[in-house]
Amino acid sequence: MPESKRRKTTKSSGTKGSAAPVVRKKKGPSPRWYVALMLACFAVGIIWLVVYYATGGTLPGQRSINGWNLAVGFGPILVGFGLATNWR
């Protein structure tokens, strides 16, 4: 079966007849600190949750915020997932 031709992408500048091809600049790989930051966010969140459940929330810092410990633990984990989506 014949394959159809691909269309060239063009960017219109607002005037008729003047369309320049879109040039997309490829982004390079993420810096090394980006991966370290992403993994650190995952680790901090997981460690917070493990300590909270292991101690039953009896540590002075954790006792004062009660149920918000889950938000404090999952916050860095969500930030880590956000960083992971932009990692190249």
Structural overview:
It is a single chain. This protein has 88 residues and is mainly α. It has 3 helices and 2 strands. The two termini are 36 Å apart. The mean pLDDT is 87.
| Class computed from helices, strands and strand pairing | mainly alpha
Terminal Cα span: 36 Å
Low-confidence stretches: none
Biggest sheet: strands side by side, in what order? 1-2
Q: What is the general shape?
A: elongated
* Fraction of helical residues: 40-55%
Total E-strand runs = 2
Rg on CA atoms, Å = 24 Å
- What's the helix-strand series? EEHHH
Report the sheet-strand fraction. 5-15%
Sheet with most strands: 2 strands, antiparallel
Task: State mean pLDDT (0 to 100 scale).
Answer: 87
Number of helices: 3
Key descriptive features of the protein:
single chain; 88 residues; mainly alpha; two-stranded antiparallel ribbon; 3 helices; 7% strand; elongated
Give the topology, please:
Blueprint: E1 10-12, E2 19-21, H1 32-55, H2 60-65, H3 69-85
Helix pairs in contact: 1-3
Task: Give a summary of the structure in a few sentences.
With 88 residues, the chain is mainly α. Helices cover 53% and strands 7% of the residues.
